[in-house]
Write a structure and sequence with these properties.
Layout: E1 20-23, E2 29-34, H1 40-48, H2 52-59, H3 68-75, E3 82-89, E4 92-102, E5 115-122, H4 131-145, E6 150-155, H5 160-167, E7 172-178, E8 181-187, H6 192-214, E9 218-222, H7 231-241, E10 247-251, E11 261-262, E12 267-270, E13 282-285, H8 292-302, E14 306-309, H9 319-334, E15 338-340, E16 346-349, E17 356-359, E18 367-374, H10 377-391, E19 397-402, H11 411-420, E20 426-431, H12 437-448, E21 453-457, H13 478-487, E22 491-493, H14 496-508, E23 516-521, H15 524-536, E24 540-541, E25 545-546, H16 553-565, E26 571-576, H17 585-598, E27 605-609, H18 615-619, E28 637-638, H19 641-661, H20 675-688, E29 703-704, H21 707-715, E30 724-726, H22 730-740, E31 744-748, E32 763-766, H23 769-783, H24 786-789, E33 791-795, E34 801-810, E35 814-821, H25 824-829, E36 832-836, H26 841-850, H27 868-884, E37 888-898, E38 903-905, E39 908-912
Parallel strand pairs: 5-6, 9-10, 9-13, 10-12, 13-14, 14-15, 18-19, 18-20, 20-21, 21-22, 23-24, 23-25, 23-26, 26-27, 27-28
Antiparallel strand pairs: 1-2, 2-3, 3-4, 4-5, 6-8, 7-8, 11-12, 16-17, 16-19, 29-39, 30-33, 31-32, 31-33, 34-35, 34-37, 35-36, 37-38, 37-39
Length: about 950
């Protein structure tokens, strides 16, 4: 990025976009911002609290206090050649970093000098919290923005903590020892290692921030009513009834001054959280919205680590509420606190050492290994109730959060926590919006490699985030979101019922080794329904084994044992209807559990039953219940074949994804790609269109390249576009055909006529001049004058399957590669597959096979199969183009004819714009509110 050199005495405007909130290593937060002239007193106060040793490490000599000249120099910056950033908590400085641009001799300089000297100072009380590492990420991003490519730092050998900050950052670096100091030089270009370090730190910090919320040692309920009822008093009672292992405090400014305890609960009562003598880890806030700011301030002053805000009246209530919501988050973060809510339902942790029910749920759910996240309180209640009703003894909850407006803590934070949580084996999420799709898919992919992540998304067709959710909008349709989630290994389901169904199976059964399903039972009709459902959901069912209506539990046991021992079977569905005889539901459940317990290999088993009261409960009895060797085995039961099979199919697809993810694909390198040449072309083209110099207020507007420029840019990536020459009149058409060689095609390129085969506006295989002139006359009569149709003559391509390849940039999700067959049927059916860029060779192969019309590529009805390897290579080359050059904001290749040998691109359009900021590659920070 070009910058204007700072003139002596000239200061640039305050760069507000450098401000950021970050999560530190211990889970607390800090606000990072540029240091400004008004910070003089803050700087002096900060410096007074730094130890003499830390001052010595910073200045290499005793430096007890800052002079007025020092204070002026450290607070006045031009924000180009001299920049200072501060980390603040509660408005006070806790750490600073600055750089000064220098030349090759180490003297102060301006651009084009691209090196700067950097130095840190961290208050001793905050050392070890990862403050310096966060500041290094942000000051490096600022330096890159200002054209600085390298940092140098001189550090005393004894200052091992600061040396470690630099060496652990992951940047390419050089290290030397001169004149008694360690000299470090860091190349600021992000590397794979620096990005990995940054994301690992992000994961640890965000997971720790959730850990502080979900496993507190003490909880204050602020807004506890003096009389029974109300949110505050309800949460207090739920905390006590759930057996919370820590200290509980009731807080209400209306309590009498002499009140020491709240009865009948018997908990300490306080008029303010400031009156609590010991630490408070978590505060549950249940006061009117207009009282929340003073409550947050008191919590911050007391050192509370996190808040659950149940109060309503925020983003869901209109513009004023959205403003209150932003101020709430800013205020809490300024004190280092994170927020669940506002308008939240609460937080639950069933771990034996915690037993936290800081929610409006009347009872603590059964402990288990499911992590449950819901953006909706109502859906959260329904899920907790439904799982308890259907799965008592079968599964349980490890932790639950209903995030309400999720103004701060989001599903991404809980994915970071559940990724490493040893008490969680399965993640279920109800989402109404995905604020950062790029980060969500990255985190979900990493977590899904260890444990299943099942998501149901509400507001799929509304096109807007629910009221109260301050998230970036995304233009990508729901079908695209679904493809991207599946690419990341997320199990996407459509309804809350399917979320529970799939969760029950995954929480209680092993993953299937494949799609082969055995079906057995005492009802031929129910078995056939199950068979049909398997085919519909992509499973491979064996012919059903009918035990007849006279079957007894022992017959079920023998049949199930045989199916589980069959090497041609990966999963079993048992179907059951009421039978003739005296056997009870418990007898059948015991027989099935015994068969599973005796099986040599773990295979998932589900039961579909109609009108057999007590069977689901008997199958879900916890270990130690029942008789026989199957007492420790639990089996999920479903009231409909379609529901059981859908859950099993999702498990099979996830198991396949997980096996493939163990050996991920690769992004191939192609020797004929000219990345540098393409970059130079793009820079010239953007400057020629004025896109760099004059972006409009709403952001840079994309420019569409001419056909020659498009072809030249694609050629840099080994993508050839079949030549097409303009034909403004019949004579020009004949001359163009002479240059290209007959046979040729004649077609219009006017925007309103392109890709409209239904209008009959394309003439193919024109073998001579007379035939070409006749076709020209027909098209001008049919479609309009030549200047309206913009006819072109193009070389003929071999026969094949017409396809479309597109890449587009979504501001939230990033670059998305799309593929489908050309033509109206595919458009009407939405038969297009999508993948996030960069696409691997495995992604490309699966992408072309995932569309419903894929059989046309592989020899459907005896046709000759086309060259899918060449098609995969084309997808990979387009992916490389948009990934290497974020200025390519759109690429349309249509049509692309896939022939038995090779692919042929007949038309292409490229759109360019100045590269948008890549938030996933920048320094870690919390979302802006």
């Amino acid at each position: 990025m070009q910058t204007t050199p700072a003139q002596p005495g000239h200061e640039h405007a305050y760069p507000a976009h450098w401000e950021a909130d970050v999560v530190l290593r211990d889970g607390g937060t800090a606000h990072l911002r540029p240091i400004a002239p008004g910070d003089a007193q803050r700087l002096v106060s900060f410096y007074e609290q730094v130890s003499d040793e830390s001052k010595y490490y910073r200045f290499f000599a005793p430096y007890p206090r800052l002079s007025d000249r020092d204070v002026h120099r450290f607070t006045h910056h031009d924000y180009v050649d001299r920049v200072g950033l501060a980390a603040t908590v509660g408005g006070d400085f806790i750490a600073t970093v600055r750089y000064d641009r220098i030349d090759g001799r180490g003297m102060p300089a301006s651009a084009p000098a691209d090196e700067a000297e950097v130095a840190f100072l961290v208050q001793d009380a905050h050392q070890g919290r990862g403050v310096a590492s966060a500041l290094l990420e942000h000051i490096a991003a600022v330096a890159r923005e200002r054209g600085i490519r390298r940092f140098t730092a001189e550090v005393l050998p004894a200052n091992t903590k600061m040396i470690k900050v630099f060496t652990d950052a992951g940047y390419t670096q050089k290290r030397s020892f001169e004149d008694g100091v360690v000299r470090l030089q860091l190349d600021l270009e992000p590397t794979d290692r620096s990005l990995a370090v940054q994301r690992a730190r992000e994961q640890r910090a965000e997971a720790r921030s959730v850990q502080r919320l979900i496993a507190p040692g003490s909880v204050a309920v602020i807004g506890t009513g003096r009389a029974p009822g109300g949110m505050g008093r309800t949460v207090l009672r739920n905390l006590l009834a759930g057996g919370f292992t820590g200290q509980v405090h009731a807080v209400n400014h209306a309590f009498p001054e002499d009140a020491a305890r709240l009865e009948p609960e018997g908990v300490p009562a306080h008029r303010s959280v400031l009156g609590i003598s010991g630490p408070v880890d978590l505060a549950v806030v249940a006061v009117p919205a207009d009282q929340v700011p003073s409550v947050v301030a008191e919590c911050g002053e007391h050192g509370v680590q996190g808040l659950v805000v149940l109060s309503a009246g925020y983003g869901e209530s209109g513009a004023d509420g959205r403003h209150r919501q932003r101020e709430l988050v800013r205020q809490a973060r300024s004190y280092g606190m994170r927020i669940i809510g506002p308008n939240a339902f609460g937080l639950i942790n069933t771990a034996a050492g915690v037993r936290l029910n800081a929610s409006l749920s009347p009872e603590l759910p059964a402990a288990g290994r499911i992590g449950l996240f819901s953006q909706s309180g109502a859906i959260g209640i329904a899920l907790l109730s439904g799982l308890h009703r259907r799965a008592a003894g079968l599964v349980g909850i490890s932790s639950f959060v209903s995030a309400g407006n999720r103004a701060d803590v989001s599903g991404n934070d809980f994915l970071q926590y559940w990724h490493d949580d040893p008490d969680t084996d399965l993640v279920l999420m109800y989402l109404e919006s995905i604020g950062n799709p790029r980060k969500f898919t990255r985190l979900a992919r990493r977590t899904a490699a260890r444990k299943p992540v099942v998501v149901v998304k509400g507001a799929r067709h509304g096109g807007a985030a629910p009221t109260g959710h301050a998230v970036p909008t995304t233009r990508i349709p729901d079908a695209t979101v679904s493809d991207l989630l599946r690419q990341a290994g997320v199990i996407r389901v459509d309804t809350v019922t399917e979320l529970a169904d799939t969760g029950l199976l995954l929480a209680s059964q092993p993953l299937p080794a494949g799609p082969r399903v055995a079906i057995l039972g005492n009802s031929e009709s129910l078995a056939l329904l199950t068979y049909d459902a398997c085919l519909t959901d992509g499973l491979r069912p064996q012919p059903p084994y009918d035990l007849t209506t006279g079957a007894q539990p022992a017959d079920f046991r023998r049949a199930l044992a045989g199916a589980l021992a069959d090497e041609e079977c990966d999963a079993v569905v048992v179907t059951a209807i009421p039978w003739v005889g005296d056997a009870s539901a418990a007898d059948l459940a015991g027989a099935l559990r015994e068969a599973v317990a005796a099986a040599p290999a773990g295979k998932p088993v589900t039961v579909v039953h109609l009108e057999i009261p007590g069977l689901a409960e008997a199958l879900a009895e916890p270990p130690g219940a029942g008789d026989g060797g199957g007492a420790a085995v639990r089996i999920p039961a479903y009231p409909a074949a379609e529901r059981a099979v859908r859950a099993l199919a999702e498990a099979a697809r996830y198991a396949r994804w997980r096996r493939l993810a163990a050996e991920p694909g690769r992004v191939p390198e192609y020797d004929d790609i000219d990345e540098a040449g393409a970059a130079a072309d793009i820079e010239v083209l953007l400057e020629a269109h004025g896109a760099v110099l004059a972006p409009p207020p709403e952001g840079p507007r994309a420019v569409t390249l001419s056909a020659p420029d498009t072809q030249r840019l694609l050629a840099r990536y080994g993508i050839a576009v079949l030549p097409a020459l303009p034909a403004p009149d019949p004579g020009s058409a004949v001359r163009a055909a002479g240059r290209l060689g007959f046979p040729v095609a004649l077609k219009p390129t006017a925007p309103h006529l392109r890709h409209r085969a239904d209008l009959g506006g394309v003439r193919l295989d024109l073998g001579g001049e007379a035939e070409l002139r006749r076709a020209y006359a027909e098209l001008t009569e049919l479609l309009g004058k030549p200047e309206e149709t913009r006819l072109v003559v193009q070389s003929m391509a071999p026969r094949g399957v017409d396809t479309v390849v597109r890449a587009a940039i979504d501001p939230a999700a990033g670059a998305v590669l799309s593929f489908g067959l050309a033509g109206a049927p595919s458009l009407l059916l939405g038969d297009t597959a999508h993948r996030l860029v960069p696409v691997t060779d495995r992604d490309a192969a699966e992408q072309i096979r995932s569309i419903r019309t894929a059989p046309l590529l592989f020899g459907w009805r005896g046709a000759t199969p086309v060259d899918t390897r060449a098609l995969e290579e084309l997808l990979l080359r387009v992916s490389r183009l948009v990934d290497d050059h974020p200025e390519v904001v759109g690429a349309d290749l249509e049509p692309v004819i896939v022939a038995p040998q090779g692919v042929h691109v007949l038309g292409a359009t490229i759109r360019l714009a100045p590269a948008p900021a890549r938030t996933d590659l920048g320094p870690r920070s919390l979302p802006v509110v």
